[in-house]
Design a protein that fits this description.
The structure holds two protein chains of two kinds.
Chain A lengths: L8 E4 L20 E13 L6 E7 L5 E7 L3 H6 L12 E8 L6 E9 L10
Parallel strand pairs in A: 4-6
Antiparallel strand pairs in A: 1-2, 2-3, 2-5, 3-4, 5-6
Chain B lengths: L1 H15 L3 H7 L6 H10 L7 E3 L33 H13 L20 E5 L3 E6 L4 E5 L18 E7 L2 E7 L4 H4 L11 E9 L2 E9 L8 E9 L16 E4 L2 E4 L10
Parallel strand pairs in B: 4-5
Antiparallel strand pairs in B: 1-9, 2-3, 3-4, 5-6, 6-7, 7-8, 8-9, 10-11
The chains are: A mainly beta, B alpha+beta.
């Protein structure tokens, strides 16, 4: 399924840096764009080589869309204040990410904030 | 029945009197306690959770912190710039053709020494252990033993290493490494005949590793790279987890994220 970004806040952000290659190249993500998605956590995968947030959000037509949001390895998340219990199923969060180039509902996570608007963990 | 048990114990006893003691001796220090304490005191201590400078201050998204403009290019261990012969070039071309969407099994050697995964270095008089957050471990024996006979080695993901100390520099030779690209899709395509020479030392707050690789199968001459490591902050302990959820996929030659395991077809 191709997800249209109409339901998300889409912004073109020129990034000054090229990130280092981690477990795989970041070429699969459009690093010139940042998308903000709000939804409900279906699953938080605390796994190597990447953690993933499976987030249920609505598209422009009000249909449920599941996003696969990639994060770094748990060891790094742990060092930034994250724990396996930081996201619980059913929790509402807002995620800013660089989207997949192929149009699928997914991307690499930049920031995550809870329903109270406060960031989860310390990130940078 | 009882006779059979006695016979089995006797057989076990005979077996224990065979090659086992030699193996046991190899696992223990030949130094006296006083000698060992003295040897320990002379060794460097390199505490910390080390990552190559390339990956310092990684964010929750897996991004390394940007380096100041004009910073010198950091060298890598992926071997992309090695002097390949025809065989090496053919392997590089095949790797480039098959890399998209490939999943990995971990970092393996040498990539675990230049990875987005911190490692610790535990130094003893007899061996140095390098252990990363995936549980990948290198055993570098420094008790004076030679490299094992050829018939006692076979290619593995992390190879076979022997080391010695030259002052505060750990000098390592590693052989019998499986082609690194097989285990990790970003690894070099060196052959199992490659010999890896490392020199690791502290320079201020950095750990500096100079590596030279010789490979008669894929290289026209030695290839060298220097990797500097820094201490990652905010780790209070090493938390090891297996490598179980690589969701790298490919669509039309471009990587993508595969659906979660509980939503894939047939599961």
């Amino acid at each position: 399924m191709r997800f249209q970004f109409a339901g998300a806040v889409l912004g073109a952000v020129a990034l000054a840096v090229t990130p280092a290659q981690a477990h795989h190249s970041f070429a699969m993500f459009d690093m010139t764009k940042e998308v903000t998605v709000s939804g409900t956590v279906r699953q938080f995968q605390w796994t190597n080589p990447h953690a993933y947030i499976q987030l249920m959000a609505k598209d422009a037509q009000g249909r449920d869309v599941e996003w696969s949001m990639e994060m770094g390895a748990p060891m790094y998340l742990y060092a930034r204040g994250w724990r396996p219990g930081s996201l619980k199923n059913g929790m509402r969060v807002t995620v800013t990410l660089n989207p997949l180039r192929n149009g699928q509902p997914g991307g690499v996570v930049r920031d995550v904030t809870g329903a109270d608007g406060k960031p989860i963990g310390t990130n940078r | 029945m009882r006779q059979a048990v006695v016979a089995a114990l006797a057989a076990a006893s005979l077996s224990a009197a065979g090659p086992a003691p030699a193996q046991d001796a190899a696992a223990r220090s030949t130094l006296s306690t006083a000698e060992r304490t003295e040897a320990f005191a002379k060794l460097p201590y390199w505490p910390g959770y080390w990552v190559s400078e390339q990956y310092a201050n990684t964010t929750i998204g897996g991004f390394a912190a940007p380096r100041p403009a004009g910073s010198p290019r950091l060298q890598r261990l992926n071997g992309f710039d090695a002097p390949y012969n025809d065989e090496g070039k053919a392997r590089q071309a095949e790797a480039a053709r098959t890399r998209a969407g490939r999943r990995a099994d971990g970092w393996g050697y040498p990539m675990m020494m230049d990875a987005a995964t911190p490692f610790q270095i535990m130094i003893t008089p007899e061996e140095t252990l390098i252990v990363n957050a995936y549980g990948e471990t290198r055993h570098i024996y420094t008790d004076g033993r030679p490299m094992p006979p050829a018939e006692d080695m076979w290619p593995t993901v992390w190879g076979t290493s022997i080391g010695h100390w030259e002052g505060d520099t750990l000098v390592i030779e590693t052989v019998q490494v499986q082609m690194p690209y097989t285990y990790f899709h970003g690894g070099p395509t060196f052959s199992e005949e490659a010999r890896y020479h490392e020199r690791i030392r502290m320079d201020g707050d950095h750990l500096v590793m100079e590596m030279t690789v010789e490979d008669p199968v894929t290289l026209t001459g030695p290839w060298s790279a220097t990797i500097t490591h820094v201490r990652e902050q905010a780790f209070d302990r090493m938390v090891q987890m297996d490598f179980s959820n690589d969701r790298t996929g490919s669509e039309n030659g471009v990587n993508t994220i595969e659906p979660p395991a509980d939503e894939r077809e047939g599961q």
